[in-house]
From TrEMBL:
Superkingdom of source: Archaea
MF GO annotations: ATP binding; lysine-tRNA ligase activity; tRNA binding
Compartments it resides in: Cytoplasm
Protein name per the record: Lysine--tRNA ligase
Residues annotated as domain Aminoacyl-tRNA synthetase class I anticodon-binding: 211-295
Species whose genome carries this gene: candidate division MSBL1 archaeon SCGC-AAA382A03
Keywords: Aminoacyl-tRNA synthetase, ATP-binding, Cytoplasm, Ligase, Nucleotide-binding, Protein biosynthesis
Cellular component annotations (GO), alphabetically ordered: cytoplasm
Phylogenetic placement of the source organism: Archaea, Methanobacteriati, Methanobacteriota, candidate division MSBL1
Family: Belongs to the class-I aminoacyl-tRNA synthetase family.
């Protein structure tokens, strides 16, 4: 026999008289082998609709690995009880799954505190989610939303890694962490190509039209000049530059949302865009500085 001791299967196979009951009889009465422990699970929906191979409504393992690490698939399975219904959506909810997994990692390595009972549960889920051994130390990772942003604005992989090292995201990263980063960036690029909603796509203005510059108020221009100066003096990580925007706006009696809008207007020609910390981190400092100065002129 194969030595199987545990057998997960869809809930339909767990019905009385179903395939598990039949297989158990065969295992025990014909082969004199103790049947594996049954673990029935609920079906998984895809974007709110039951998967169906006959209708072609499926999401294969190959498709998963194009846009997400195998550890995320194990986490998706283990984060809730087997008989709890699951729904997978490869669009924005997949990015949220990435972020949940990072929080799990934060708790495991003591970067975030939760209740004692929740900590024990989350640590066990993290261990079960690993394909290989648990990392020896807290891994440096490229945040998925930053990865989605940078793959749309950087020239190539070398350029992306150069920016991420310069901005501190991959500062002093080990070789295996660089490999993790490269794999995530490739998956982020696949996600942008295959599943990104329209609002996640980025098109930087090649030039700043006069009509866009005229829509930026004097207070916004003042804050853009200050932000440009700050960026020229220091390399900021995503969260730091995001916080700096709030700080500058508050110091100049400007609602932070108005400064964020000015940033997007200067770079994208519209009032909204990706999270500013990730967005500005992904761009070359010299370009951002000159564009902000131009917008403030």
């Amino acid at each position: 026999m194969l030595g199987v001791t545990c057998e997960p299967f869809g809930k339909d196979h767990a019905a009385d008289g179903g395939s598990y009951d039949t297989g158990k009889i065969i295992a025990e009465e014909i082969y004199n082998y103790e049947a594996p422990e049954p673990v029935p699970y609920e079906w998984t929906d895809l974007e709110g609709t039951s998967m169906s191979s006959s209708k072609g409504h499926v999401f294969t393992l190959e498709q998963w690995l194009e846009v997400a690490e195998p550890e995320l698939l194990k986490y998706f399975i283990f984060r809730s009880k087997a008989m709890k219904a699951k729904n997978f959506d490869p669009k924005f909810p997949l990015l949220e799954l990435y972020q949940e997994y990072r929080q799990l990692e934060d708790v495991y390595f003591g970067k975030e505190e939760v209740s004692e009972s929740r900590e024990e549960q989350m640590k066990r889920i993290y261990e079960l989610s690993q394909v290989d051994n648990v990392p020896e130390h807290y891994p440096k990772r490229v945040p998925i939303r930053l990865a989605v942003t940078i793959v749309q604005v950087a020239r190539d992989m070398d350029h992306m890694l150069k920016i991420l090292k310069k901005k501190g995201v991959l500062k002093d990263a080990d070789d295996w962490e660089i490999e993790l980063a490269e794999e995530r960036l490739k998956r982020a690029e696949n996600w942008v190509d295959k599943y990104a909603p329209e609002e996640a796509l980025i098109k930087i203005l090649d030039e700043l039209p006069d009509e866009v510059r005229k829509k930026i108020s004097e207070k916004q221009k003042t804050c853009l000049k200050i932000l440009a100066r700050n960026i020229s003096e220091k390399d900021y990580e995503p969260v730091d530059i995001h916080n700096k925007v709030f700080e500058i706006a508050n110091e100049h009696d400007l609602k932070p949302v108005k400064l964020f809008q000015a940033i997007y207007m200067a770079l994208l020609g519209k009032k909204s865009g990706p999270r500013a910390g990730n967005f500005l981190t992904a761009l070359e400092d010299d370009f951002v500085i000159e564009r902000f100065k131009e917008a403030a002129s």
